Fold this sequence. Notes:
Blueprint: H1 2-22, H2 50-61, E1 64-67, E2 74-77, H3 80-89, H4 91-95, H5 101-106
Antiparallel strand pairs: 1-2
Amino acid sequence: MLLLFLVAIPIFLFxxxxxxxxxxxxxxxxxxxxxxxxxxxLHQLNNxxxxxxxxxxxxxxxxxxxLRPGSVPTLVVFSARMGKxxxxxxxxxxxxxxxxxxxxxxSYNGLNLVFAPLNDx
Length: 121
């Protein structure tokens, strides 16, 4: 049983990482530093001065960059002009939370006040 477990876990992790690396093809992210499969870019953030690391990344990748702190891609905006675009022009795209199965089951299919999507309802 232990041998089966030791063989099954690496195979599962291989296919999980392979599936995540292929992506679904329709999400185009801005450039950003490459990260590890499960922890993303968390290993690159310095505990003493993460703002210095982010400033260095802004010099390398520009005013709009994607980071992966964990497994969720995050948009990082470094300039005031790009921040205005994100907060004023494209606010509806960034207003809702991602829909997850657990929160759907706990919140009556996302209809309570906390997990409701941004709409007229």
